[in-house]
Structures are given as structure tokens and as C-alpha cells.
Amino acid sequence: MGLIIKGKNIEVPVKVKDYIEKRVDKFDRHLSNITETKVELSEEKTKSKDNRYIVEITIDLQGMLLRSEERAVDMFSAVDIAVETMDRQILRYKEKLQGRKRRKQGTEAKAEVKASEAPPEEEIDESRPVKVKRFAIKPMSPDEAIDQMELIGHDFYVFFNDRSEQVNVVYRRKGSGYGLIEPELD
């Protein structure tokens, strides 16, 4: 497993790097297919000392991503909380894999993704995006995208549909189930 530790606008002390290496080492014992683990630390300049330090952990599992982001009063606490969150993500991922194996044996029916209307848009006060994320996307089916969305704990997931060869979005519907957004050019 490759481990990348970096600070975003801060210098990460050697003590913190060593601590992260010890805490993150156990991920490799739980998952054998980890390609890379990234740990990014940052500090928000706020008046309050609470939740000033942010730790983002991203694990690349040969194309599948697990991610946790946590805040705390100091770097060590933020690392601890982010690692605990990632442990839960890993457990969920392993449970999904076991469920998938059972489905392949014919014990469960394949989940169905239905396209429907998009979730209602919320009013945005800001005229610009607050945060811009850039990431590589790998072709996958809508079912795989739903699994990925559940693993990272988001309500939507942008992916490249391997069937339609277009960028699509899956999302969690308010009532129950999932939706699929497929773009259509006029």
C-alpha cells in the first residue's frame, strides 16, 4: 500500500506523520486490495479553536474509493476520529462484498435502478462554488455507482456509465430507492 501524507497550507510535523502511519497501517490488514491511501491535513483559520483541524482520508481500492473527513480541536484527535470513521467505511465495504458474493450464488435478486425526476434544488446563497473537486472517474455500471455512493456516505455520485458511455449521476431518493440522471442533448 502506498501512503501519501500531505498538508494543505500547513506543514505536517514528523510526530503527526509517524502517528498517522501507525494508525493507518491496520487498513492494509483489513483490505488486501488497497492501491493507495491519501491523508490530507488542513487547518481552518477560525476564531473558535473547536474543530479547527481537518483530516481527509481517501483509500483507493483499485478504482473504488473509500473516504472519510473529520474535524477536531487538534491534529491527533482529528486523525483518530477520521480513522474510526474509515474503519466503519471498511466494515460496510466488506459487508457489501459478502452480499455481492451471495447474490452471485443466486440467493438475492439484482437491485434495480430506476430513472426518475431529479431531487429538488435547494436555494444557494453563494454565487460561486464553495469547493471544487477534481477526480478521475472509471467506467462502471449504475449498480456499482450506487455501491460506491453508499461506501463514501454521500447522497449522490457522479460516474461514467459503461453502457451509455456518458457521465451520469445516481442519487438517493427521499422516500426510498435510488434515481439515475442521464444527460440528454437538445
Describe what you observe in this structure.
- The protein has a four-stranded mixed β-sheet with strand order 1-2-3-4.
- About 9% of the residues have low confidence.
- The chain has 186 residues and is an alpha/beta fold.
- It is globular, with a radius of gyration of 19 Å.
- It folds into two domains: 103 residues, Ribosome hibernation promotion factor-like (Double Stranded RNA Binding Domain, 2-Layer Sandwich); 68 residues, SHC Adaptor Protein, CATH 3.30.505.50.
- 31% of the residues lie in helices and 27% in strands.
- Helix 1 packs parallel to helix 2.
- It has three helices and eight strands.
- The longest helix has 30 residues.
Offer a concise description of the structure:
With 186 residues, the protein is of the alpha/beta class.
For the record, the CATH class of the largest domain is Alpha Beta
Kindly report how far apart the N and C termini lie.
Answer: 46 Å
Going by CATH, the architecture of the largest domain would be: 2-Layer Sandwich
Distinct helical segment count? 3
Low-confidence region ranges: 107-122
Encode the helix/strand succession as letters: EHEEEHEHEEE
User: What is the general shape?
Assistant: globular
Mean pLDDT over the full residue set: 81
The total tally of domains equals 2
**How large, in whole angstroms, is the Cα Rg?**
19 Å
Helix content: 25-40%
CATH topology value of the largest domain: Double Stranded RNA Binding Domain
> What is the beta-strand fraction?
25-35%
